[in-house]
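Late entry, written up from scratch paper. The run itself happened at the end of the previous shift, but nothing got recorded in the book at the time, so transcribing now.
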Amino acid sequence: MDLVELRDKKLRTIKTPIILSINKKNVEKYYETVSSQLLENNFLFINKSETKFWDHFIFDQKKVDLTFNELKKKLKKNFSN
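Output as recorded:
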């Protein structure tokens, strides 16, 4: 199965955790809004990993009843500007 096909599958059916990667310069600007949306949609925070330029936030999506495309639309509403 390729990535295009995965976009329309319910996230709870995908076995791999979701990783949100944000450039360190933008973490303060975006993390709170994005993570609150993820938590509202039943994502569970698992862990945080850091590299020199990026912060990576790992979320479990086993209880999420959205597809990737549906999630993307919800997030875009918060960043319409």
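The chain has one domain: 3-78.
(Scratch paper discarded after transcription.)
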